[in-house]
Amino acid sequence: MLRIALSLFRYRSLLATLTSRELKARYRGSVFGYMWSLINPLTLLLVYTFVFSTVFQPRDESVAPYGLFLATGIFPWLWLSSSWVEGTASLIANAGLIRKASFPAELLPVVSVLSNLVHFTFALPVIGAGLWFFHHQGYPVGGWSAIAAPMVALIQIPMVAGLALGCAALNAHFKDVKDILANLLTLLFFMTPILYTLRTLEGFPPIHWVVAHNPFTPFAESYQEALFYGRWPAAGSWVEMGAVSLVIWLAGAFVFDRLRDTLVEAV
Prior knowledge:
The protein has 267 residues and is mainly alpha-helical. It contains twelve helices and no strands. Helix 4 packs parallel to helix 7. The radius of gyration is 19 Å and the shape is globular.
């Protein structure tokens, strides 16, 4: 696990170059370019906002304006899910690089994490503009606590990287992993308090317990606290996020390290 962390630090310049190349290649020849990193999630946000604020009325009145509440949860989730999916497929997609004996394969899943982090960074000013607008409309949203959001993102990076590393190594050996992950992410999305708050589940103790113990829940709630409610996340949330991130990083790095020697044959 430590070897992978040291390798990422040692090859940080190459990691930055690969991340930049990934961002440029993704939008090369595109008219809107980096704007797609906002257009796609904003479209999804509009659909969810319409369905869950108009068709299905929110049960918790504290989430008004609902679209803004949803934005503070869905953009971090898209960073997590996109990084996880792309990182899982990264080794197979770059098999030619892995076959070079001197190339550090652990960089590839992390490139997916960092490139999607850039997209998430682009979304923060949009959320900030929404907070400013609704705050001046009389809604008690936003505040100085928004500075906690980048701190939450920093804690989240090892967690996302661990997921990408572990699943990338497993996917190289077992091609079913990517398909399983696609279904798992759908389940996890609805098990994470993004479309709703934990308070709305208090009448359903078993479901409340499952969602409350979802490892992604403290991250989602911390973003909402910092950005939407204008409150600094509780000390317990910071501890929980740090513990979850560390455990997932260690697990993912361990799996990758154990399967490293057979990656060339597997891809």
